Amino acid sequence: MKKIIYYWAIYGIIELLTYILLFRWIGFWPLLLFQIASTAFGIFIIKRLWRAITQNMREGKIISPYLLDTVCFILAGILLVIPGIITSLCGLLLFLPFIRSWMKPRINRWLEQRMNQGNFTYFDMR
Length: 126
Description:
Blueprint lengths: L1 H25 L1 H31 L6 H17 L3 H9 L3 H21 L9
Helix pairs in contact: 1-2, 2-3, 3-4, 3-5
């Protein structure tokens, strides 16, 4: 538990320093506009793709490369919504195909482990 607190503290300090440097470099209004635009884009991505992923899961489709792309895009949207320059840049990086191809096997392994252990919870919202 202490490691998580340390990681969050280090992340917060790095994010704060990034904000200060960018504030001095590009100014307040462009920085604010970037945050608003990244949050709006993240919300748009999440809303649009969440429907697709829940429909595929409801239909019982297996984890396919298309579905893993959707999971990567949802993760990118979540990272874009979280306030911060570093999380926004990580979210934008997930739109690059070679980053997604690196992430997909790891996400697939994680999902398979969760399903095999019985730790996977599915809520039917009908």
